[in-house]
Amino acid sequence: MDNNKKKKIIELRKSGFGYKKIAKELSLTVSAVRCVCEKITDEYDLIGSCKNCGIKIKSIKGKRKKVFCSDKCRMAWWNSHIKEVNKKAYYSVVCKCCSKEFIAYGNNKRVYCSHSCYINDKAKKDVAKNG
């Protein structure tokens, strides 16, 4: 199918014609018209704009739709929208060394409240081993 027919299909579709009417008017099959229309909508869905700078970006079909054009834009947007981050991974843990309760974010397997408690606990174990 040539580009002229594709453009004509797009124009007729935008003006509200259905697949059957377009096929009848251009003497094509309904499935050919549907295929062209679906390809156009797929391409349209893949084009978006960067959330930070607004530059148009094209996503890859079958992959997640791109939201940012680069890591620089992604970092800039998240740093300027800190309140939109939904932090849910807070864990209340008791320190193995000093038995003080502390809050750990993002790691529920954390054992010590600080690096100094970690070092002190290791030192106690070494003294116990060496006797």
Describe the structure.
48% of the residues lie in helices and 12% in strands. The chain has five helices and four strands, in the order αααββαββα. The protein has a two-stranded antiparallel sheet. Helix 2 crosses helix 3. The protein is rod-shaped. It starts with a helix and ends with a helix. The model has no long low-confidence stretch (mean pLDDT 86).
- Share of helix among residues? 40-55%
What radius of gyration results from the CA coordinates?
30 Å
Total strands: the figure is 4
Order of helices and strands: HHHEEHEEH
The total count of helices amounts to 5
Mean pLDDT: 86
Strand arrangement across the biggest beta sheet: 1-2
Largest sheet report = 2 strands, antiparallel
Backbone structural class: alpha+beta
Task: Report strand %.
Answer: 5-15%
- Poorly predicted runs are none
**Globular, elongated, flat, extended or rod-shaped: what is the shape?**
rod-shaped
What is the terminal-to-terminal distance? Answer: 87 Å
SSE diagram, text form:
Blueprint: H1 3-14, H2 19-26, H3 30-46, E1 47-49, E2 56-58, H4 71-80, E3 90-94, E4 101-105, H5 115-130
Antiparallel strand pairs: 1-2, 3-4
Helix pairs in contact: 1-3, 2-3
Summarize the structure.
This protein is α+β, with helices and mostly antiparallel strands and 131 residues long. Helices cover 48% and strands 12% of the residues.
